[in-house]
Amino acid sequence: MNLHGLRLFHAIVRYGGVTRAAEELNISQPAVSSQVKKFERELGIQLFVSEGRRLVLTDAGIQLTGYAERLFMLEQDVENFVQDFREGKKGLIRLTATYLPSNFLLPGWIARFKQMHEDVEIVVSTTNTRMAFDQLLRYEAEIAVYGGSGITHAGVQWDELFDDEMWFVVHPDHPYAGKEIELHEMMAEPFIMREEGSATRERLVSLCTTNNLAAPRIALQFNGLNETISAVKAGYGANFISSLVVNEDVQQGRLARVFVRGVQLRNTVAVCTRAGEVLSPAAQHLVKLIRQEAALMK
């Protein structure tokens, strides 16, 4: 199919004649006439008949007009999509996040982004640190939003947003609630933690190793962050967690801090992308908004 010939045919129909079509397309009138005749010969179909100085569509021409209109409308849709994609107005963002940002930061950030970019689709996967970086490097996600120890990872571009304190928390009725104790005393408590692969759990184990203590006893394990907090609120065990997650519960008396001498660890929240790659325009807009929102939290 000669699409140039089809386009000239469609222009003649659309503008009501060869002269107007030639003017709109900035092509000479003889060139339009000769190209359309050549198009008819290639198809083996007569598309126009002459009535005096006027061209009239044949039945075949009428039917082909319908196909041509749908084709060029689709072409316009494609051009509009490409333009919107370039400007970040449309697109698909696959985002993976660890539990801290996914539960406590991203809902608000994404809601504000969608208010400005309604036609951008966002798919969020919530997982642990190990799986988040795996998904990013396997091209299953374009962006990873991470909350943890600030570890580096080969092939990952690291953009730190802010950090906060790591707290030990217990039920308000616990004997250690609000008190300052030694690390070995804290480590004698049963802990409620996330699954292996969680950056927070790995930090707690590393803290024990650094201080020549036995690994913490994980008495309960959950795959979700909220579940670990709820169990401590119910009155069992201790948790080691970002202050961002439990600050409100501590302020309102649903949980209590335990102050451990010599332990002052911080938690890093960062946006991670594949090193050396340029994000899609929509993803660039999202990362810009995340940076702006995070800056307000410092």
TrEMBL record:
Q: Name one Pfam family in it.
A: LysR_substrate
What this protein is called in its record is: DNA-binding transcriptional LysR family regulator
One MF term in GO for this entry? DNA binding
UniProt family annotation = Belongs to the LysR transcriptional regulatory family.
Q: SUPFAM superfamilies annotated for this entry?
A: Periplasmic binding protein-like II (SSF53850), Winged helix' DNA-binding domain (SSF46785)
Domain HTH lysR-type per the UniProt entry, residue ranges: 1-58
Q: Which domain of life is it from?
A: Bacteria
Any coiled-coil regions, as ranges: none
